[in-house]
Design brief:
With 210 residues, the protein is an alpha/beta fold. Helices cover 50% and strands 13% of the residues. It has a five-stranded parallel beta sheet with strand order 2-3-1-4-5, with helices on both faces. α1 crosses α9 and α3 packs antiparallel against α5 (103-112). Bound molecules: P1-(5'-adenosyl)P5-(5'-thymidyl)pentaphosphate (T5A) and sodium ion. P1-(5'-adenosyl)P5-(5'-thymidyl)pentaphosphate (T5A) binds next to α1, α5 and α9. It comes from Carex littledalei.
Length: 210
């Protein structure tokens, strides 16, 4: 029989946080830093709007379509499930994934609408568990100051406060909370160090779990 050469696996690293906490900016910076170190790294994001389900989500988010709260919740989850197999093969073949939002967004946003917390968590069970969740912590009021809240600012602020509460209820041992109010460069530096640590642990045999 042929002997398989085992490849050090990649890490599943998620960025989470309220709207405007800086996730997309930091994902891009972290990916280019890690690639510059010669590592195999890809930037992913959820929702992944490139699939058929992703297009339904995208049209819902831009108010072009209306969907029942439970239906959109399940579509967000299905959008992660349809990427699960590819995610697993990337990770096992040694590619690290830096992912902008994951199940935590799925649960926190839907629960903030009033859906039952446990009901929201159920369809996420069996997805690959992150090795690291980088939570960019920012008070909802501070996030609102970053702009984009428009005329419905108050309503959105109230909603973001609820999202924050649900995020806190979801914290687990994979989380590292980083102060998202610091200047961009400071956040960037902290994320680099925590991510490098995580990547080493995974390369050294930390198992991949569901
Ligand atoms: N959703 C998502 C669900 O309901 N269920 C789900 O399962 C999933 C996956 C779309 C929506 O879908 C919901 C959550 C969302 O409401 P999205 O497309 O990821 O999700 O959201 P976006 O609108 O693209 O991104 P955000 O608004 O969340 O912003 P980011 O990515 O957190 O922040 P970023 O990097 O774009 O920065 C925002 C602004 O702040 C500045 C930036 O320059 C930018 O102007 N900024 C800083 N300013 C000062 N100091 C810093 N440290 C700064 N960092 C960034
Ligand atoms: Na974003």
């Amino acid at each position: 029989t042929e002997s398989k050469t085992s490849v050090a696996r990649g890490s599943l690293i998620i960025l989470e946080g309220l709207d405007r906490s800086g996730k997309s900016s930091q994902c891009a910076k972290l990916v280019s830093y890690l690639q510059g170190k010669g590592l195999s790294v890809e930037a992913w994001r959820f929702p992944d709007r490139t699939t058929v389900i992703g297009q339904m989500i995208s049209s819902y988010l831009s108010n072009e379509s209306h969907l029942d709260d439970k239906v959109i919740h399940l579509l967000f989850s299905a959008n992660r499930w349809e990427k699960r197999a590819l995610m697993e093969s990337k990770l096992t073949s040694g590619t690290t994934l830096i992912v902008d939002r994951y199940s935590y967004s799925g649960v926190a946003f839907s629960a903030a609408k009033g859906l039952d917390f446990q009901w929201c968590k159920a369809p996420e069970e069996g997805l690959i568990a992150p090795d690291l969740v980088l939570y960019l912590d920012i008070p909802p009021e501070k996030a609102a100051e970053r702009g984009g809240y428009g005329t419905e600012r108050y309503e959105k602020l109230e909603f973001q406060k609820k999202v924050a509460e649900h995020y806190y209820a979801l914290r687990d041992s994979s989380w590292e909370v980083v102060d998202g109010c610091l200047k961009m460069e400071s956040v960037e530096e902290q994320l680099r160090e925590i991510a490098m640590n995580c990547i080493s642990k995974c390369q050294n045999g930390k198992p991949l779990v569901n």
